Automatic annotation (TrEMBL):
The keyword Ligase does not apply. Transmembrane segments: none annotated. The chain holds residues 50 to 202 of 204 of the full protein. It comes from Rhodococcus wratislaviensis NBRC 100605. This is Aldehyde oxidoreductase iron-sulfur subunit PaoA. The keyword Membrane does not apply.
Amino acid sequence: AQTSVVRMRINGEERELAVDNRTSLLDMLRERAELTGTKKGCDQGACGACTILVGGQRVNSCLTLAVMHDGAEITTIEGVADGDRLHPLQQAFIDEDAFQCGACTPGQIMSGLGCIREGHTGSPAEIREWMSGNICRCGAYTNIAAAIGTAAK
Ligand code: FES
């Protein structure tokens, strides 16, 4: 298999990683960059657990190849807090009780950051619609929308 070296800025740090050309961005993050906060749910674009920000835009990292993102600016859940201080959206997830098992939470938070940045936070229904790519098997949707709404204020 062909390998390539990709250079990316991940959570503010310059990284240079050798990857098999067939490697998804998700697998690169988890297995090469050792950033396992990004979760693999379905690995086929249906659950949103693998959501990260690429250049500030939310992306399902399982659906795209690492080699397509040479030079990209990547943010994962590990890069959201400011040192020991949680991001306001992370704090809102705690305050609003917006997770149960937590498996979908990194993806929900990354997607929530995108949702806020895109300005789709006018009402709980609007948030639910723009967060519809992120599945929560525990059904914490009401509280997830509340947390995003709180953080957007
Ligand atoms: Fe990527 Fe489910 S793991 S959408």
